[in-house]
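seq as requested:
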Amino acid sequence: MNVKILKVRLSDQYIYTDQRALDRFLQQNNVIRFESAFVKDEEAYWSVILYYEDTKMTVNESKNQKYSADTDEELNPDEIKILESLKLWRSEKAKNQNLPVYFIATNNELLSIAKYKPAKKEELCGIKGFGKHKIEHYGEEIIGILEEV
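struct tokens:
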């Protein structure tokens, strides 16, 4: 059994994005049980703890259900920080490997990571454009960046 903790902020700026993240997670996993609590801090939000098992998808299903961020959708401040950190990492990685930056990851792939916020490198396979090669070579570093930001 796995555990995922999500925050659903109630402000107009975040609620849509947070709900979409929760919806995506629920579609891709088998939730066994959940707990929630209302937190009234500087900003009010629901803290949701999900106990789940990974659902097994066939190769065709996983290809059809990969996430790609909508480039027209605005980023919240957290997502902007994540995206900037990922772009900096990508530039350094490309320079060290003498590759164009888009070989490491495209702008849309980085945007999708910033929106999707995977917690484990295995969750990167849910991002359109991330296959076995990118996950093996860059997965740990990307998750490390997400944990730091």
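The chain has six helices and three strands.
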